[in-house]
Amino acid sequence: MLSNKRIQELELVMDFEKVEECFKEVSSWIENVGKKRLKETINLDDSLEMLLQTRKQFREFDLVASEYCRRGQEALKKMDQWEDFSSVDVQSYRVKLQSYKEQLEEFCTQLDENRHRICETVRLYEFFDKVR
């Protein structure tokens, strides 16, 4: 049984190394592109016209960002089985996996919040524009 468990752990490590390339690509995109683009949408302009332009640009970015989030989440699902292993040999991989997971969750949450904030701001400005 101990031998079988060790073989399973080694198989998980090999699987992790295959999936890690995807994690690295997603992580790199989040750090180098995603977070910077999200920061650009923190301060929204004061006119409806500029808000509509910002929303359009954000939607284009959102399509790409959502694809990276999806790919990252799929890769994490492949590694769900790591929860069952607690050996010291696997620990360093679990730490990496947790780091990727936290980064992805944080980015996806920020993406959702920005999407919601931009949509609500545009709706509010459209409402005020109609009232005038």
Please outline the helices and strands:
Blueprint: H1 2-40, H2 48-78, H3 88-131
Helix pairs in contact: 1-2, 1-3, 2-3
Keywords: Coiled coil
Coiled coil: 90-117
Organism: Thinocorus orbignyianus
Stretches where pLDDT is under 50 for at least 5 consecutive residues are none
Residue-averaged pLDDT: 88
| Fraction of residues in helix | over 70%
- The end-to-end span amounts to 75 Å
What class do helices, strands and sheet pairing give? Answer: mainly alpha
Please give the number of β-strands: 0
Cα shape = rod-shaped
Strand content: under 5%
By DSSP (H or I, 4+ residues per run), the number of helices equals: 3
Oligomeric nature of the chains: single chain
Question: What Rg, in angstroms, do the CA atoms define?
Answer: 20 Å
User: Largest sheet, described in full?
Assistant: none
Name the helix and strand elements from N-terminus to C-terminus, one letter apiece. HHH
InterPro entries: Rho_GEF_signaling-related
Coiled coil: 90-117
Keywords: Coiled coil
Protein name: PKHG4 protein
